[in-house]
Design brief:
With 187 residues, the chain is an alpha/beta fold. The chain has 7 helices and 9 strands; from the N terminus they run βαβββαββαβαβααβα. β5 and β6 form a beta hairpin. The longest helix is centred in the C-terminal third of the chain and has 15 residues. The chain is globular, with a radius of gyration of 16 Å. Bound molecules: guanosine-5'-monophosphate. Guanosine-5'-monophosphate (5GP) binds next to β5, β6 and α4.
Length: 187
């Protein structure tokens, strides 16, 4: 097994399924895990912090990093670039940590190609209706973007079966614990 692959946990799930909250709960419960901070060209939401939630880049800066080969994977999602920086992963794993990547389905498939022993987990919403309710309640996107994200969510749900595990997010505490247990081989 590659040292990197066995220390990678890739988590996907449609926008609004609560995966960010689940990942925060994992990080709080268990200090073995750290988050890979992705780069993106999406504009920053008011509560987000540059370098913590994302590394916010201009399109030109992002394309520059693509051509330098800085990304393990990158993709275009709802008209913005998102990518995992190799440096994020290599540095954290060499410090003895298990790195969680919260990325969409195409990126997850690309990571699995490079590191077949990475653990991939799909966080599923209880239903599409619940997903729409959560997205609207979050109130961070306009109606057009919500519709685009719901369309994308439907598409993403079709990829669930290509993940090692599917975990339904009904309760954050349960869902986060299930992911830790899966990592530890208890499930
Ligand atoms: P959001 O704009 O809601 O923060 O993220 C949109 C989607 O992009 C989410 O599904 C999120 O998991 C995904 N994403 C975030 N960072 C990356 C990344 O580095 N690579 C890929 N492929 N997807 C990412």
């Amino acid at each position: 097994m590659s040292e990197i692959g066995k220390n990678l946990v890739v988590i996907s799930g449609p926008s609004g399924c609560g995966k960010d909250t689940v990942v925060k709960a994992i990080l709080k419960k268990d200090e073995r895990f750290v988050l890979s901070v992705s780069a993106t060209t999406r504009s920053k939401r008011p509560y987000e912090v540059d370098g913590v939630d994302y590394i916010f880049l201009s399109t030109q800066e992002f394309i520059g990093k693509i051509s330098k080969g800085d990304f393990l994977e990158h993709t275009m999602y709802c008209n913005n670039y998102y990518g995992t920086l190799k440096s994020q992963i290599e540095e954290k794993i060499s410090n003895g940590k298990v790195v969680i990547l919260v990325i969409e389905v195409e990126g997850a498939a690309n990571v699995k190609k490079v590191y077949p022993d990475a653990l991939t987990i799909f966080v599923a919403p209880p239903s599409l209706e619940e997903l729409e309710r959560r997205l609207r309640e979050r109130n961070t996107e306009d109606d057009g973007t919500i519709k685009q994200r719901l369309f994308k969510a439907n598409e993403e749900l079709g990829f669930q079966s290509s993940y090692d595990y599917i975990v339904e997010n009904n309760y954050v505490d349960q869902c986060s614990q299930s992911i830790i247990d899966i990592f530890d081989g208890k499930k």
